[in-house]
Amino acid sequence: MSRKMLFVFNPLSGRAQIRTKLMDILDIFTKAGYQIEVYVTQRAMDAKRIVEERGAEMDLIVGSGGDGTLNEVVSGVMGFSEKPCIGYIPAGTTNDFAASHKIPRNMLRAAERIVMGTACPVDVGSFDERYFVYVAAFGAFTDVPYKTSHELKAVLGHPAYILEAAKGLGAIKAHHVIMETETERYEGDVLVGMVSNANQIAGFKGLNGKNVRLDDGAFEILLVENPQNIFQIPEVVTNLLQNGHKSKLVRHFTASHVKFQFEEPVEWVLDGEFGGKRTEVSIDNLCRAVQVMKMTHSLPKKS
Length: 303
Ligand SMILES: Nc1ncnc2c1ncn2[C@@H]1O[C@H](COP(=O)(O)OP(=O)(O)OP(=O)(O)O)[C@@H](O)[C@H]1O
Known about the structure:
Elements: E1 3-9, H1 18-31, E2 34-40, H2 46-54, E3 60-65, H3 67-77, E4 85-90, H4 96-100, H5 107-116, E5 118-127, E6 130-132, E7 135-139, H6 144-147, H7 150-156, H8 159-167, E8 175-181, E9 185-196, E10 200-201, E11 204-205, E12 219-225, H9 233-241, E13 250-255, E14 257-270, E15 273-294
Parallel strand pairs: 1-2, 1-3, 3-4
Antiparallel strand pairs: 5-6, 5-15, 7-9, 7-14, 8-9, 8-14, 9-12, 10-11, 12-13, 14-15
Bound molecules: adenosine-5'-triphosphate.
């Protein structure tokens, strides 16, 4: 009997390249013996809804789009007691999740790896009643991915983020934060905070350490403290972009559970999408909560 697949994709993600790849992707899945049900998302939260409605019957759920679409697919399966495996074909602008998990950006190669791959456990973050697959963040520039228009991303790709970030330069402000993990307490004024399970965030590799384990039940937490004067800014930037260079203003923690408190509601971003405003939030690492299809051995290069 053929296996059932739900294939959900965002037609607008990134540069909308799915339009020229769709036939070949479906061909790869069909040849691998899948009976495919296809859904084209029409708006935000559509991917999560369709996964909740149809996912329980499936052997495999494949999502294609940016990190926001993957977030919805994963959020959709979290309610199932027996979760189907997930496959992911990156089609967004930065594709941080794919980079962290070594999923190829080439859509056809990613599709081949789904059908030939092995189900590998991956941690998921719970953020109150929501979920994230690689990062929950607040503060300066973290809103850039969802504030940048699809039209600009389609034309410029990643540089569209830099243009959007430049618009926000004048509005940077620090938040007074109390953070508690299972072992540590921190209080201070913070420009940017990131709770992540990733090797790449917003296109930057190694922000939260090198070779981060993605199935160990632990988050890497980064807090950038408010510089006392403008002369400290280059030091902070060097620390963030060059792994290994140390700055007292960049603090790193590791934890499975973390709670944040702020003096006023602060906007959070989950996997590049708006995550709501919170004065308090509780974040937990759900160790190995989902299985994602990945290649555990290398494929021969095609001529
Ligand atoms: N047909 C659609 N029209 C408008 N928005 C959509 C549509 N389908 C999905 N969405 C929403 O668009 C948002 C962003 O999608 P996604 O992350 O897949 O792509 P992207 O923004 O191009 O990628 P990236 O985050 O890498 O820039 C998600 O919240 C998703 O739910």
